[in-house]
Amino acid sequence: MSHLFGHDQPLSVQARGGHSPSFVGTFDPRVRVVAACVFAIVVVALHQIEFALGALIFAAITMSLTDLPLRVTLKRMAAMDGFIIVMLVMLPFTTPGTPMFSVLGAEASKEGLMHAILVGIRANAVVLMMLSLLSGMTPVTLGHTLYRLKCPPVLVHLMMFTVRYISVLHDEYHRLRMAMKLRGFKARNNAHTYRSFGYLFGMLVVRSLERAERVLEAMKCRGFSGHFPMIDDLAFKRRDGAFAVFFLALIIALVLMDRMYVVAY
Amino acid sequence: MHIVDGALAPEVLIGGGVLAVAGLSLGLRKLPIDKIPATGVLSATFFVASLIHVPVGPSSVHLIMSGLAGLVLGWTAFPALFVGLLLQAVFFGFGGLTVLGVNTVNIAFPAVLAGLLFRGMVSRSSPVTAAVLGGCAGAFSIALTTVFVAISLALSGDAFVPAAKLVFFAHIPIMVVEGLVSAASVYLIAKVKPALLQAADQTSGFEMQATATLRAKQAGEASNG
């Protein structure tokens, strides 16, 4: 998973030298971040399965315009669905309403089933759209984008540091783990395993803090005054505006249809 | 532990968002420029914790270690854990955007609370007692997180109440494992680098922390660079 935060990832905003970005990737990251947030908020508020399905199709079309590997994206969505599957299966049995069928004496209601389907579609639509619009950018680009969108600079700096050190510490973890393996450690269900993992993580915390002290000293040597220069060439072009208008129009249409449907029936 | 988009009622989402912003601004206020590198590196460490899988019965779970985060970071655990959740949501699709606030409150607030409750005691006790207290802090923060998750589900509709109960009981083994692993971690930190667990007022400034480290070094602590 940490390949996203690998050492080879560009530390500048211009990602992937030479390799041209996908259609979605050519738009200003700021527009993409705002669009993903608006989409999430609106889709969560949809009440009708038909329009939630429409949002899911919209997300799938956006997905097809990116160069994300389909298999990886589907796998991530499946992992997300794994989180909610228990809740979705339980919902029909716990919602009162018209009984539809029964399993082991428990009545499943139509309303509950519809609610479960709605929740599942909404969750998938939001995650798919978020992955399509955002996961194509590097974490550094995300940091710069949030900075330009007036997020607190301290928070953005904190995020950039975190992104920078995840891969370093993940490597460190693998090194310690390798050393344990060489000494014949095998993870089992016993106190020894949990103690060993505890020592492993404690060591990781200690080493990371010592690393942080060295980093701060090195940064002070180079004149760190609490602010990172954010050098990037984010520019809001006309086609970004067009994308924003198109996206917004589609979303507003979805909401209006959803609300009108409620009134009409 | 993550709640996904689309399940919770709008009121719960908004409430979670407001609380998360409040916690974040409080945490950021306690984060001087000098401590950004240390907090960032520790935030990365706790992100890596979620990539470490520990066997539990026939399956395995990943570590969360929010109790330890609270012990080591105090209030700044809030922004540190938020950053981890944001990265997980955006790049891995775990959790979602609208539930980010709720998820942050559910995970970071118990961590901060565990830190406030146990930090003073841990810093004053011997490594073995510190380990026991650290284990309590680890199990406590996970327990409180599952309670918060259950509450956010239950507030979103009565139909979720059985699912909320299930969430709580399914996490009992995780509480035990987190407690054991946190206890061992705290034991090691208390032995190797006790300065990390000093009470908040003693490490408020980075300079102060450096002196604490120096004192620990003079006491004959092993070098772990």
Automatic annotation (TrEMBL), chain A:
<protein>
    <submittedName>
        <fullName>Cobalt ABC transporter permease</fullName>
    </submittedName>
</protein>
<dbReference type="GO" id="GO:0006824">
    <property type="term" value="P:cobalt ion transport"/>
</dbReference>
<dbReference type="GO" id="GO:0043190">
    <property type="term" value="C:ATP-binding cassette (ABC) transporter complex"/>
</dbReference>
<dbReference type="Pfam" id="PF02361">
    <property type="entry name" value="CbiQ"/>
</dbReference>
<dbReference type="InterPro" id="IPR003339">
    <property type="entry name" value="ABC/ECF_trnsptr_transmembrane"/>
</dbReference>
<feature type="transmembrane region" description="Helical">
    <location>
        <begin position="83"/>
        <end position="104"/>
    </location>
</feature>
<keyword id="KW-1003">Cell membrane</keyword>
<keyword id="KW-0472">Membrane</keyword>
<feature type="transmembrane region" description="Helical">
    <location>
        <begin position="242"/>
        <end position="262"/>
    </location>
</feature>
<feature type="transmembrane region" description="Helical">
    <location>
        <begin position="116"/>
        <end position="134"/>
    </location>
</feature>
<dbReference type="InterPro" id="IPR012809">
    <property type="entry name" value="ECF_CbiQ"/>
</dbReference>
<keyword id="KW-1133">Transmembrane helix</keyword>
<keyword id="KW-0812">Transmembrane</keyword>
<feature type="transmembrane region" description="Helical">
    <location>
        <begin position="33"/>
        <end position="63"/>
    </location>
</feature>
<dbReference type="InterPro" id="IPR051611">
    <property type="entry name" value="ECF_transporter_component"/>
</dbReference>
<comment type="similarity">
    <text>Belongs to the CbiQ family.</text>
</comment>
UniProtKB/TrEMBL annotation, chain B:
<keyword id="KW-0472">Membrane</keyword>
<dbReference type="GO" id="GO:0000041">
    <property type="term" value="P:transition metal ion transport"/>
</dbReference>
<keyword id="KW-1133">Transmembrane helix</keyword>
<dbReference type="InterPro" id="IPR002751">
    <property type="entry name" value="CbiM/NikMN"/>
</dbReference>
<feature type="transmembrane region" description="Helical">
    <location>
        <begin position="97"/>
        <end position="118"/>
    </location>
</feature>
<protein>
    <submittedName>
        <fullName>Cobalamin biosynthesis protein CbiM</fullName>
    </submittedName>
</protein>
<feature type="transmembrane region" description="Helical">
    <location>
        <begin position="12"/>
        <end position="30"/>
    </location>
</feature>
<feature type="transmembrane region" description="Helical">
    <location>
        <begin position="68"/>
        <end position="91"/>
    </location>
</feature>
<dbReference type="GO" id="GO:0005886">
    <property type="term" value="C:plasma membrane"/>
</dbReference>
<feature type="transmembrane region" description="Helical">
    <location>
        <begin position="167"/>
        <end position="190"/>
    </location>
</feature>
<dbReference type="Pfam" id="PF01891">
    <property type="entry name" value="CbiM"/>
</dbReference>
<keyword id="KW-0812">Transmembrane</keyword>
<keyword id="KW-0813">Transport</keyword>
<feature type="transmembrane region" description="Helical">
    <location>
        <begin position="130"/>
        <end position="155"/>
    </location>
</feature>
<feature type="transmembrane region" description="Helical">
    <location>
        <begin position="36"/>
        <end position="56"/>
    </location>
</feature>
<keyword id="KW-1003">Cell membrane</keyword>
